[in-house]
Amino acid sequence: MFFYIDPRNGIAIYDQIARQVMFAVAGGSLQPGDRVPSVRELSRSLAVNPNTVSRAYRELQSGGILETVRGTGLEITATAPDACRKERWKMIRERMHSVVEEAVRSGLGAKEIRSLLRTELANPALRKTTP
Amino acid sequence: MFFYIDPRNGIAIYDQIARQVMFAVAGGSLQPGDRVPSVRELSRSLAVNPNTVSRAYRELQSGGILETVRGTGLEITATAPDACRKERWKMIRERMHSVVEEAVRSGLGAKEIRSLLRTELANPALRKTTP
Amino acid sequence: MFFYIDPRNGIAIYDQIARQVMFAVAGGSLQPGDRVPSVRELSRSLAVNPNTVSRAYRELQSGGILETVRGTGLEITATAPDACRKERWKMIRERMHSVVEEAVRSGLGAKEIRSLLRTELANPALRKTTP
Amino acid sequence: MFFYIDPRNGIAIYDQIARQVMFAVAGGSLQPGDRVPSVRELSRSLAVNPNTVSRAYRELQSGGILETVRGTGLEITATAPDACRKERWKMIRERMHSVVEEAVRSGLGAKEIRSLLRTELANPALRKTTP
DNA sequence: GTGGTCTAGACCACC
DNA sequence: GTGGTCTAGACCACG
Fold it and tell me: Residue D131: which pLDDT band, with cuts at 50, 70 and 90?
């Protein structure tokens, strides 16, 4: 499957999993009706405890992204793509907002902030990493 | 004093205090030789556990921003302004990096990211916000 | 046939099937001596695992609603209509009991609960709904 | 404290805890700003695993009923009473709806259903049980 | 095979 | 002391 987690990057593992599912849905590589890997399978392939995967899936369920189909697994809901695209925007926008806010509060001007972004976007290491 | 903390915003309180000291130094409102409030005074005025203020000061000391002046308390070091400006850059740059990284990984293009920043910079509520 | 199942509604599928058979018997649309569809046939038409249909029938057998007639399949017993009517009452009564119990425990008064029922009974969409 | 759980009533323990907190808030015995018992304390007094209590609290958090105050515990939010009263109604109404729906579908008339409720409300065992 | 729940016990950062 | 996260392993109902 197409999930990778970094156990030491500060973001909780269950959250990394949930985000990647959402990104995959937002990007179209997971479609409504698709089944997500089983808890046991994913936990094995990520070398992570089943409970951790389970928690990620549970949060996605309560967010309306996944639904259980009794005994057969979890699948992407019909409303998921919309919700995921919205959520993706919201998450990125919130983080961008808080960076800019802190930058301004710490005394940086718009010019400096823009140059900061330019530097980051020029970073060649970006395009390679697929989630 | 000019510190404000929000015990509910997810950022550790000691970290909020330490950042604000650093920003004040970077911005010049705290100068080398100035004394910071005593642990007891600040903890009272912020309604915060003294241990928490203490920890903030401890981190600032080990970062070379504060030094104890025997008997009289803690004051801003001579090298602090430089260090704080550098630290400020580093913190902002790291956060900007991680936002951009997530945005790209989630499938957004450089154009969209730039537009996101533009929107944020246009936000008129920026200068007013107190930490 | 006249069965409908919803694999996503939280009620076990075998239970949905068993209930519908019982309701049909209680209501007279299935009579003693009538044959129920074979496991294979019903499982195909409901797009459901044969084990699931099998389990529904097994429970109905052990409840005395169905009996095997050698070679030809399962049919409604002579005592089924009585048993189903009783069972229907019991199930509804139990559920009503537990709703009322929770309502009272959560602080609602008899008056509010009665008004709740009145609202539900007034709902015009009732008779139309298919299981 | 005022929580009781029944480990064998079919409702998940974490759910029983969460409901009781909500009912307590809806009924006013827990007010905004009040602290809820600590995870460890409640888990001890209910003879339940800390993770189970933790999960109950987590769900309440994501529902906006509780918020963490760093290092000091979890407290009732300002918006909780409203949310809990709404949630309480919603839960009871949904259950009443589904009972009535099943009753009607199984062939019972409004008269019989009303009489069912009357019987339940007359049950003297009701008033005693406090959650 | 599937998910859901629970227990037990550990480690972390924070106050 | 507090909550948050994770692991390990168990049991259940369901298909």
Answer: very low
Is pLDDT of C130 > 50? Answer: no
| CB of D103 lies under 7 Å from some atom of strand F | no
Average pLDDT, integer, range A21-26: 94
In chain C, which residue's Cα lies nearest the Cα of A72? C7
Q: Flag whether pLDDT at D124 surpasses 70.
A: no
Amino acid D127: pLDDT = 57
Minimum-distance residue to F7 (CA–C1'): A49
How far apart are alpha carbons A30 and A20 in whole angstroms?
10
CB pairs under 8 A between C and D: 97
More reliable by pLDDT, A129 or D123: D123
CA-closest candidate to residue B92, choices A95, A6, A129: A95
- Which amino acid, one-letter code, is at A92? I
* Residue with token string 């970077």: B26
Closest residue in B to D68 (Cα–Cα): B8
Cβ atoms of residues A73 and A57 within 8 Å: no
Which chains have 3+ CB pairs within 8 A of A? B, C, D
The token duo for D42 is: 């409640």
Per DSSP, the residues of D71-116 read TTEEEE-TTHHHHHHHHHHHHHHHHHHHHHHHHHHTT--HHHHHHH
Determine whether the distance from the CB of A73 to the nearest atom of strand F is below 7 Å: no
CB contact under 8 A, B7 and D67: no
In Å, how far is D66's CA from the nearest CA of chain C?
19
Which subunits have 3 or more CB–CB pairs within 8 Å of chain B?
A, D
User: Residues A38-57: what's their mean pLDDT?
Assistant: 96
Give phi and psi for B37, each to the nearest 5. Answer: -60, 150
Q: Which residues pair with B68 in a beta bridge?
A: B74
- Percentage of chain D beyond pLDDT 90 is 64
Do A26 and B95 make contact, defined as CB atoms within 8 angstroms? no
CA distances from C124 to B64, C120, D18 (A): 75, 9, 34
Taking residues B103-114, report their average pLDDT: 87
Question: In chain C, which residues have their Cβ closer than 8 Å to the Cβ of A67?
Answer: 8
Q: Does B126 touch chain A (CB under 8 A)?
A: yes
Handedness of CA C13, C18, C20, C23 (dihedral sign): negative
Alpha-carbon dihedral C77, C82, C86, C87, rounded to 10 degrees: 10
Distance CA D33, CA D23 (A): 16
Note the pLDDT tens digit of each residue in D11-41. 999 999 999 999 999 999 999 999 999 999 9
| Percent of chain C whose pLDDT exceeds 90 | 58
